[in-house]
Design goal:
Radius of gyration: 29 Å
CATH topology of the largest domain: wza like fold
Structural class: alpha+beta
CATH superfamily of the largest domain: wza like domain
CATH architecture of the largest domain: 2-Layer Sandwich
Number of helices: 5
Strand content: 15-25%
Number of domains: 3
CATH class of the largest domain: Alpha Beta
Distance between the termini: 11 Å
Order of helices and strands: HEHEEEEHEEEHEEEH
Length: 260
């Protein structure tokens, strides 16, 4: 009788723990829903957001193309682009890395400072420099590296490159496989560094206000960190505890059977 009572007591404890595990592991659907405070409407007008002006930084890779009205002059300039130190990107363009002092080096005009400039400002600076060689030069400047990092409670954390210079938060997270069910959507952090100045931005993916946030679009080199929620640790601890107790009960049952 004493053994039977002990077994019943252990099984009752196991059932209680399993019940607690189920109730604790249940996820509140509202907490895993994006912009869950949006009104029920067939169409909602959102504010227009201008993507941020990307400033050129040290170690950026810029792809520069130069053209103009006079074909002979353009051919003359582009012969230098095509043979520049193995950095030619083809098609009359050249890839150049912004050095530690903020300069790039281009054929004929030499070193030119671009750090801290927008792409449009860099185009104007390069266009003015080439005006000595070309009539009404046409300059194209694009970023050769738009990279960002996603860490924490996402399905495939890692380091990502994209040719798209207009990338929003949800597109970035989607590249990492989306957030897991354990992610804290109300406190997603962006670690951002622009020309040596760093800051941390906290965003709430549950709130509709993120759709109108100035940080809706990410910037180059952003680090997106998604915190795990408390339920993650609760669920894992309960799973471990349940497994240990189940093993103990199994051993206890075997001992009782063999003692009979």
């Amino acid at each position: 009788m004493e053994y039977a009572f002990s077994v019943r007591k252990w099984y009752s404890l196991l059932i209680l723990i399993l019940y607690m595990a189920c109730t604790q592991a249940c996820v509140n659907t509202k907490s895993v829903t994006y912009f869950n405070n949006l009104p029920d409407s067939l169409q909602i007008q959102l504010a227009k957001i201008q993507p941020p002006q990307q400033l050129i930084q040290v170690n950026d890779i810029l792809s520069v193309r130069v053209g103009g009205e006079n074909e002979k002059s353009v051919a003359y300039i582009n012969q230098f682009f095509g043979g520049a130190a193995g950095e030619s990107s083809g098609g009359g363009g050249l890839q150049s890395t912004v050095d530690i002092n903020g300069f790039i080096e281009l054929p004929k005009i030499g070193r030119i400072k671009v750090e801290g400039l927008t792409r449009d400002a860099a185009k104007d600076t390069i266009r003015n420099a080439y005006a000595e060689y070309l009539k009404d030069p046409i300059v194209s400047v694009t970023f050769g590296n738009f990279r960002f990092t996603v860490l924490g409670e996402v399905r495939t954390p890692g380091y990502y490159n994209t040719p798209n210079e207009k990338l929003n938060l949800f597109e970035a997270v989607a590249q990492a496989g989306d957030l897991t069910q354990y992610a804290r959507r109300d406190n997603v952090k962006i670690i951002r560094e622009v020309n040596g100045e760093r800051k941390i931005i906290s965003l709430n993916f549950n709130d509709k206000s993120i759709l109108n946030s100035p940080d809706y679009y990410i910037q180059r080199y952003d680090i997106i960190y998604v915190e795990p929620g408390r339920i993650r640790f609760t669920s894992e601890n309960l799973n471990r505890t349940t497994a240990v107790l189940s093993a103990i009960l199994s051993i206890t049952a075997l001992i009782i059977i063999f003692r009979r």
